Amino acid sequence: MALQLSYLLSLLLLVLLLPYSTTAQTSNNQSLGSSLIAQEKGSYWASPSGDFAFGFQLIGNGSYLLAIWFNKIPEKTIVWSAKRDTLVPTGSKVELTKDGKLVLSDPTGTEIWNSESGNLGVVYAAMLDTGNFVLASQDGGHLWQSFDLPTDTLLPSQTMSLGRKLVAHYSERNNSNGRFQFALKTDGNLQLQTLAYPLDYWSNTAYWESGTNGSGFQVVFNESGSIYLTAKNGSILTTVSSNSVSKDGSIFHDFYQRAVMEYDGVLIHYVYPKSSTNTSNVWSILSFKPPNICEITEDIGSGACGFNSYCEPGEDGRPNCKCPTGYTLIDPNDVMKGCRQNFLPQSCDEASSETDQFDLSEMVSVNWPFSDYGRYDGVTEDWCRKACLGDCFCAMAVFGGGRCWKKKSPLSNGKKDPTEAATKVLIKIRKDNSTFNPSGADLKKKNHSIVRLILSVLLGSSMFLNVLFLLAAFLLAFRFKYWKLKARNPYPVTPVMNLRSYTYEELIEATNGFKEELGRGACAKVYKGVLEYEDRKLVAVKRLNTMEREGDMEFNAEVSAIGRTNHRNLVQLLGFCNEGEHRLLVYEFMSNGSLASFLFGGSRPYWHQRIQIALETARGLFYLHEECSTQIIHCDIKPQNILLDDSFSARISDFGLAKLLKADQTRTTTGIRGTKGYVAPEWFRNMPVTIKVDVYSFGILLLELICCRKSFEAEAKDEDQMILANWAFDCYNNKKLDLLVENDEEAIDDMKRLEKYVMVAIWCIQEDPSQRPTMKKVVQMMEGSTEVSVPPG
């Protein structure tokens, strides 16, 4: 009780003294109008002791992060950053404006981030010795402070209130948002959680929690070096980390401290000696949570490590992610992405027998608990082995105590487990590097047998006649409705399921009279709208130039085609308006704008973001070409037609130039469509146009994503660099790919993937359409499931 009272009094004293601590640093206060410029060896705003600094920290070459860091240690360890997902270029500026806002802008003056503290009475800014950067009023009160908006780090004297969280870095060298968080939920429960990777939402299951629903109020990191959760009355509910270095409080005076939500899911309390002049010193671990990160077990997501890998805890509490026999890392630079089979999987073709081509490799003391699809009791190990080898879905089997579990890929929640020593894991691997491809005759035979089976079942049932009757009635009703629509409208829209039909008046109201324009094209303008009667849902309303016959044809193509599409990397069509001369389409709103703005907007996006956008765009095109009910050629793939949603995932938009193919068509001839710089050569040669025109455009787009520049730059510093495709080809041939990503250390560190993606792009932009791969093969090459051969010279 006395200990809790002591903590409460310390916290109360800290709160009372905070306003005065700012005014005591008058000589370090920054007045309204003060600013800093992002440049090498640029200035910064230091705390009175010089322990902390606020300013631009160089990340790689030519890119900066607005941050706070420990200024007296060689590593300049970052403890806070603004807009952490966005690096800014040289010449960017942060300014304390006259109205009291802290504003970050790029060299063109475009605002990137602001503190949202305008007109609150801010008169100066100060970097405090606690590591807190504040915007203060005349009497020293904190009107805005970095301590209220933590990134991945807590510092002594910092608190974390309900609803606040620490989000880990993406990787060791990437400061953007990652896959783990330490969060104080609004219900008072303190939790460690995972992002359900590779999905895009936080798991509902915590891998560590305080169990304080309804009572937790605030996380406190006190100056004595203890981190704990308190109730509203100040009593301690649970301790996250206690000071075990010194009992007299000297840790605060002798050591720097920080608590970090690390990129691999471990919350670590670090210390660093203040007085040391030894440049080889590193941050030492005082404590960590959870005790064993590998114990993460979730029904959604991959677990502590990526899919098809297993976790082995290290002495420092960090996970060591490893691949089982027969598997290799998908990305050696990011072990969290998991592993893939390094052999061709077993075929499920009934006409083939591959059992003799596979064997089972043994492992012990390891398990993947959530991948079972079959369990058998009272069997022998030999039976278990044969059952897995004879089952094409079985990636591995686990045998122990007379029981056999079959497991399928992808394997999740893998972990090293000494308690499983008596259990054998039998991993299916290929005996050699041979591959298996079923012949066309075999596939045709299989398809015929399936058709015969279905027909025999249907014809053997009286229900079949009822189904035929209902189908005929539906078709008659459909034809009648179609005739009515055609009589009313010379360009009828094909009826499509799950689409809302809006009136023109509704869309005038939603867009406030078409007030805010988002963009425009040759035959349409796009406006921002709000659907008042649908929970104020934000939408993008595309208004077509309806007087043109071409525009009407475009409208019909979009409604009938997009209405039947359903893919996470396509912009979703919500509804339409077909009223008199008015033709409008209503799409979901993409909050992060176009890829063109993201890629060419001044600050360079992270390498991992660019390659993810490239892969997502490829998947969307693959769907349009081969997986949707009516094959669609987009015909205008370019950065302006790739939009980014809330999580910066790529969504393909603008099917206005799409050319639809019937099921029995493979190519079509039409007028030139598309945008200069992305148009395939066959458009200009009166040649048949196939899906390969999209492959060509994607190849150009992929090079732009790799290099962070446009396909044509008239003002390039070297004439050889003006046309990106030619320059990329020269760099590849001369083995100078680093020139394409100059000053991008993250990309240079990932040189193997960089080379692979450049090779894929070169294949895509081959002049002969027949030499270009399909988008399906492009996706496979980018994912690593298919090797990329050397492109033609």
TrEMBL record:
Coiled-coil intervals: none
Pfam families named among the record's database cross-references: B_lectin, Pkinase
Protein's UniProt keywords contain Lipid biosynthesis: no
EC number: 2.7.11.1
All residue ranges annotated as the Bulb-type lectin domain in the record: 21-148
Assigned protein family: Belongs to the protein kinase superfamily. Ser/Thr protein kinase family.
Protein name: Receptor-like serine/threonine-protein kinase
